[in-house]
User: Fold these one by one.
Assistant:
Number 1:
Amino acid sequence: MSKFGLQTVLSEAYGLEGVLFAGWLFGSLCLHSEKRMRGFAGQEAGMIEVRLFATFREGRKKIYQMDAEGLEKASDVLDLLQIPREEVAIYLINGRHSSVEDKIQDGDVLAIFPPVGGG
Amino acid sequence: MGTGYNGKIARINLTTGEITTETLDLELAKRFIGGRGLGTKILYDEGVAKVGPLSPENKLIYITGPMTGTKAPTAGRYMVVTKSPLTGMIASSNSGGKWGGKLKYAGWDALIVEGRAEKLSYINVEDEKIEILDAQRYEGMMSEKLDEELKKVHPSCSVLNIGPAGEHQALLAAIMNDKDRAAGRSGVGAVMGSKNLKAITVSAQRTVIPAADEEALKAAFEDCLKLIRENGVTGGGLPTYGTAVLVNIINNTGSFPTRNWQESYFEQADDTSGETLKEKYLVKNAACHRCPIACGRVVKVGDKVVGGPEYEPLWAYGGNCGVNDLNAIDEANMWCNEYGLDAISTPCTIAAAMELYDKGIITEEECEGMPLAWGSAAAIVEWTKRMGEGRGKLARLMADGSYRLCEYYQHPEISMSVKKQEMPAYDARGIQGIGITYATSNRGGCHVRGYMISPEVLGLPEQLDRTSVEGKAKWCMIFQDLTAVIDSMGLCLFSSFALGAPNYAALLNAGTGTSYTPEELLVAGERIYNLERLFNKAAGMRPEDDRLPKRLMEEPIQNGPSKGQRSRIDVTLPEYYKVRGWENAFPTEETLKRLGLEA
């Protein structure tokens, strides 16, 4: 019955990796954030699109078009947007469930969700 | 010391007017738990599988679970179990609100309604007293108005009723309770209409259900409440955005059926999302009996404050009809509640009609001034009203569901249904496991008979690859069996985002005095699922009824993140039968023996 245990749920939903890395990365990336965050600018070559949902929209935009240069992993985007990793439950790259450590590339669409459910 | 059950069932014969009290067989109750399980057992044993669904011989069982009305979190559910006129198979339609808890407080575990009243009637339950009363003055009355009128006569009552759709026996008719909660699926409202039964009012003095072990129940309740409050979904996502929060995530996986499943990504989905609903229309949350989640939405439609749409109607009226006008969806959903229509199958049938219209099969003339055009906000509102009223030939056809509609026009492939009931809001081409749920659901196209979206999309209890078929059959079976348990206990399925089988076993054992282990509880769920299948077999189900619409296998998704995907039910269904111990869609003798269901 461990499949239905809460611990499993929590450990699967909230990765704990890379928390220390986040602080350093945010510092280095925020210098370029003005350039990167263009809001609803539309997809251009060399850009990625980041879509935020539910509570992640509070104090942020719904969609960001970002220059892909210097953004290697999904976690880099979280740091740039100041979204704590432990708050992310679902991370989609081009509609596929992904890890925050997965590589991103030009033209990717990222969708980021806190814990959500329904039926 | 109690048992969680009242130990009493009322049998009400509307033909003769006879009302009798029967003692609940406690051993049988504990074996089939209650609610969905026990209701199916009664219906099966009484030979209802072979009767005409709209004949006086069909029976309507309104049944609670042993947890209904107790202190357990989300313990407000009841089931309507009957033979479905939509599918011709088992119907077990679940609802929340306050009515189920009231029935339990009044001292009854279930009401079994038989026969057909000579004139439109309603049943009034006041604790021990049950009476059949004249309802002719309420003929044609809408659900909310009827709720208010009956409360003037029985001031402290909770009201369950049908609207005009149930009265004219539309096969998509729902049973409503507490104004906007619905036992929505499989046409249970039509069965109530066929019995000339407009409503059941329930009043109760008592507010406590004695448990077998009050201390143990309190401890289990506290454990469960903590888990529900701490869980990101039940303690955060659902209370904040309601089920509507799914619009964006399902769309972003490219599994959001669009324009009657011709596509699976809706560009304007965000206009109809839980986030937009909260921002523009939400008045407040609403909670069912004893529910700490409060996922219900109360919204403004014009100058009215009404129950808001769940994810399913937001999708079915929205992307599935190509509509991005949230105000119109709120209104159409309100009309579903008022007329008493299934808010999944009704908009799905409109979507099928839109495809028929788009292809020139339904003509402009047949639309009588309201074209069934993709994206038409006016059409979803107007056609819902016409279906509710049974106004016009086409609307009457549509009110019997997409299968009969499309068959009439000789295009059955356009009906996106299983066992003649419309499939809900997740594309089984992009999410493989939910296709097994749809194909094998005993009540036809349905997501809540084994909510595979939880592991395949939401990552609960662990993240599976939604596009893979590997291991999905076993997962689906576990979800189906656990769901049968939750439905039978009288709890809300949403509790399972936070709770697992050990929690349910702890609650049930404390409430009833049983000693189920989590594993044994899953076997009890398996027994219920197999019994439903036996009911269907007796009702004439054929192996080929476990099928998905051809579109899901033959037309890969055309757009969005799941482009190119198609259902692999050809692989998963045989595997599913194997893990279930079924051959050719039905349990083997060996399986029946193992479950104690042999003849």
Number 2:
Amino acid sequence: MSTRSRRLEFLNGARDTLPLVIGAVPFGIIFGTLAEGAGLSAWGAMGMSLFVFAGSSQFIAVGLIGAGTVWPMIVLTTFVVNFRHLLYTATLLPYLARLPRRWQVVLAFGLTDETFAVSVGRWGRWDESAFKHWYQFGSMLLMYVNWNVCTLVGIAAGRLLRGIGGWGLDFAMVAAFIGIVIPFLKDRPHYCAVLVAGGVALVFNGLPHKLGLIVASVLGIAAGVAAEALMNSLSSGDGVKGD
Amino acid sequence: METVWMVSGMALVTFSIRYLLLPLSSRIHFSPIVQRALGYVPPAVLAAIIVPAALLPDGGEIQLTWRNPYLMGALLTAAIGWRFRNMLVTILGGMAGFAVWQWVLRAGWI
């Protein structure tokens, strides 16, 4: 009986992740395709997909390698770009804290944007299933296998089709990120964070080692927090009336 | 050798971000301002990646022109995302629009 529930949760998790997996296919293939042209070996690209498993930071790493960036700077940029995942763990904390250590390690390793987006809904549903972690596992395993297969296909494609980088397929990353950002734009402080981060990134694009990305991210976050505080103080009165 | 350091470092920081809160959860308490700040991290970081990629596709000068397919593609993707609120439709629609626009520009029709 419980074996069946586990399998059902696992399969449902994989099924519900399918639309996002399809979106990740061009992403993974393009990552593998661009890697060798940028100077990252096939083993390096495969190693990233197997052990890092974080698409956006892998893309950015390839861009940085192509620009001749030293590796500690790439690791620092990875930290900044992936720091958003802390929010995902923090959100799932009440659920994941109850699981055995080995489950925590596995599910944390696979906590991508996509798997978080799908499983947060399952954890929050008010039914008594004791196997919701199998749902998240189904989601992450499908994402993981797909990501690595696509990376491999991309590496092979990159060798067959020299100059595929010039096809503009790198736009897939921009499109995917826009798709991820839009649901965040739910109020003015979030618009503020996005506009400041984007504007600062543009101004400081020339800084070495992509430092502009880090500066822009920090200022964008600060702008969002400040805007939220300002709106709260305005709406709470303090003698301010109307506009 | 440098590749091994880089991949190991990336793997370590990424896993740490995703995992460390779990064993530390009983001892860590986020102040309200940190909690609020965390909510702005994903859109701020992604915007800092998207905007230069769309406006400075070759890393040179700002290309604020309809002849820049990355900018036109990004605007179209945002419009589709706004209208349909569906990730897959947004990504595939944006990529298709970008490909068509780039093809039109290269063919020299406009």
